[in-house]
UniProtKB/TrEMBL annotation:
Protein name: LuxR C-terminal-related transcriptional regulator
Domain of life: Bacteria
Domain HTH luxR-type: residue ranges: 149-214
Source organism per UniProt: Streptomyces maoxianensis
Transmembrane feature ranges: none
């Protein structure tokens, strides 16, 4: 017996191609579309048995928000995510949102079809290789590098962060003082404190260290008007 379903994907052409293939296999496709603000509403209004939700960015915040809305308003709809190989957190996030399954987006049509049928029957569906990869990563997590840039940034005051940004932009003491509305002697003192806190001996070294550790990018955000307003 065919499954009554909807196909949603980041790319409309992929959604339509998958929908066509499933129609040829005897399934009833109610709609094929690209996810947008109204995607969840469309599923809620049509009430399919299964929704295939394709996403290229499962790690993005809010990627699975449509699932939350669908399951809240149509709990009987089984949602199967089609996406790239995610981290264990990605798989967990999909199921936490209410998904019934997670299938690789390059899975053969037979695999997608099996997942749909199992999801409709109330089974959880995850390809074995995804589970193996998830367990392997959980048991042997990759070492995460220390966030040196964040550590160094926390050592600086907001005023010193602004000085660092200006140093990295090549401003000399006179320009720093003029731009910040302070005396040249004060600007010079700020520069010396920045160099001392960063453990470098020159402005060039400070700029290089900031760029290498990502400190410069973080500093630019902190010293921007928006960043300062958020403090």
């Amino acid at each position: 017996m065919g499954v009554r379903l909807m196909v949603l994907d980041d790319h409309r052409l992929l959604a339509e191609a998958l929908a066509s293939a499933l129609k040829l296999r005897g399934h009833r496709v109610l709609a094929a579309a690209a996810p947008a603000a109204g995607a969840a509403d469309l599923v809620v209004s049509r009430a399919p048995e299964v929704c295939l939700l394709g996403t290229a960015t499962p790690a993005e915040p809010g990627a699975f928000d449509p699932i939350v809305k669908i399951k809240r308003e149509r709990p009987q709809v089984a949602v199967v995510v089609l996406g790239p190989v995610p981290s264990p957190r990605g798989i967990a996030a999909a199921f936490a949102a209410g998904a019934s399954g997670y299938v690789r987006h390059d899975e053969r049509i037979e695999g997608v079809e099996r997942a749909m049928v199992k999801a409709r029957a109330g089974e959880a569906v995850v390809a074995p290789q995804l589970l193996q990869g998830a367990f392997a990563e959980l048991l042997n997590p990759a070492a995460q590098p220390d966030d040196e840039g964040q550590r160094l940034l926390q050592m600086l005051t907001p005023r010193e962060v602004e000085v660092l940004v200006r140093v990295a932009e090549g401003e000399d003491t006179r320009l720093i003082a003029a731009g910040m509305g302070i005396a040249p002697s004060t600007a010079r003192t700020h520069v010396q404190r920045v160099l001392m806190k960063l453990g470098v001996g020159s402005r060039l070294e400070a700029a290089a260290l900031a760029a290498r550790t990502g400190l410069l990018d973080r500093a630019a955000v902190v010293s921007s008007p928006a960043g300062q307003a958020a403090e």
